[in-house]
């Protein structure tokens, strides 16, 4: 049975030991690195399924590591950092991180984020072919070739902007997308600061796909950061 491989990049021995113990209990393979230089070499050679990354490394900022890794790999990256400001989260996610967990964190939450990242990694090949395929997530279906979306096999009547939003979220299922990323993907650079409009369109989209828009199960809000499509 294949054991997922996790690369842990963390310079705090106590946090490293906590993560190692957690991964041991879940039967994951793992490798650890204490600095950015070693981490980049390991990222190339270890072929990890997921990277867990601290931003405050002694020789290199974690955001720089994300940018370098994204130059050649789409491996899921979960940031685990003491930096809790929204701007820090946005910077890391815009650089290419998939998720952001603030220290101190619970073991259960770390494992849940890790499982979500592994699911996304396993479906990446399918997602990359999305334009010529059909997307399924719970009761939601998107036929990319036909440009149609369905809920419980009934067509949802979406505006062009709502459909674009839904497609961007679907193609990045499980990944936190920042406001700026979504705006650029849907409207282009000209609308990169129009977050209020994004919130309005997201609210109307939720009304059409969520059974209870006030308690959404498909589109999760990350306050001050962005949105995530949840795998059902």
Structural account:
By secondary structure, this protein is an alpha/beta fold. The protein is 42% helix and 21% strand. It has 8 helices and 12 strands. Strand 8 (148-151) and strand 9 form a beta hairpin. It is globular. The two termini are 25 Å apart. The model has no long low-confidence stretch (mean pLDDT 89). Keywords: Cytoplasm, DNA-binding, Phosphoprotein, Transcription, Transcription regulation, Two-component regulatory system. GO terms for molecular function: cis-regulatory region sequence-specific DNA binding; identical protein binding; phosphorelay response regulator activity. Residues 132-231 bind DNA. InterPro entries: CheY-like_superfamily, OmpR/PhoB-type_DNA-bd, Sig_transdc_resp-reg_receiver, WalR-like, WH-like_DNA-bd_sf.
Tally of structural domains: 2
Main β-sheet, in a few words?
5 strands, parallel
CATH superfamily (homologous) name of the largest domain: Response regulator
Identify the strand order in the major beta sheet.
2-1-3-4-5
Strand portion: 15-25%
Stretches where pLDDT is under 50 for at least 5 consecutive residues are none
Q: What is the 3D shape?
A: globular
Modified residues (4-aspartylphosphate): 54
Subcellular location: Cytoplasm
Protein name: Stage 0 sporulation protein A homolog
DNA-binding region: 132-231
